[in-house]
């Protein structure tokens, strides 16, 4: 049985985070304070913490690594979903994200670990990735070596 993970991340504005994660992404809000908010991200606890040093226009710093011909931002976080959930989320996100880091698409098509994926940023510059596999148990940690066996 998988247990929920917990991650805390920086945001430049609590109300802006509440709007993005709560209203736009549709994540239920848990406990909150003037400096942080818990969100339920598909059963996982993600906590937006105010970092006033980011300033109103500031963003957290990211580095990118090449993966499958895309510049993948590091750090990033998100959730592995069922394909139908992923498609529904991609449709919703397209209503408020104008500039995807990586547009929704199928990565590693026809190879072990084939996955639907998308990357986008929150208003504070936190990179998010959501992905889905046809068979999570068989493909989440698949390697080429396993496929050749």
From TrEMBL:
Q: Which Gene3D superfamilies match?
A: 2,3-Dihydroxybiphenyl 1,2-Dioxygenase, domain 1 (3.10.180.10)
- Read off the InterPro entries from this record: Glyas_Bleomycin-R_OHBP_Dase (IPR029068), Glyas_Fos-R_dOase_dom (IPR004360), VOC_core (IPR037523)
Residue ranges of domain VOC in the record: 3-133
Keywords assigned: Dioxygenase, Oxidoreductase
What are the GO MF terms of this UniProt record?
Answer: dioxygenase activity
Cross-referenced SUPFAM superfamilies: Glyoxalase/Bleomycin resistance protein/Dihydroxybiphenyl dioxygenase (SSF54593)
User: What CDD domains would the database entry show?
Assistant: VOC_like
Q: Name one Pfam family in it.
A: Glyoxalase
Q: What is this protein called?
A: Putative dioxygenase of extradiol dioxygenase family protein
């Amino acid at each position: 049985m998988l247990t929920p993970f917990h991650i805390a991340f920086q945001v430049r504005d609590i109300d802006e985070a509440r709007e993005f994660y709560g209203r736009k992404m549709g994540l239920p809000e848990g406990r909150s304070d003037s400096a942080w908010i818990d969100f339920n991200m598909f059963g996982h606890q993600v906590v937006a913490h105010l970092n006033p040093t980011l300033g109103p226009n500031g963003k957290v710093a990211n580095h990118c690594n090449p993966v499958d011909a895309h510049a993948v931002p590091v750090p990033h976080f998100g959730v592995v979903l069922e394909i139908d959930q992923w498609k529904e989320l991609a449709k919703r996100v397209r209503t408020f994200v104008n500039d995807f880091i990586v547009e929704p698409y199928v990565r590693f098509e026809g190879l072990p670990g084939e996955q639907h994926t998308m990357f986008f940023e929150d208003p504070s510059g936190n990179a998010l990735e959501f992905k889905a596999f046809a068979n999570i148990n068989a493909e989440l940690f698949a390697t080429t070596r396993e496929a050749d066996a």
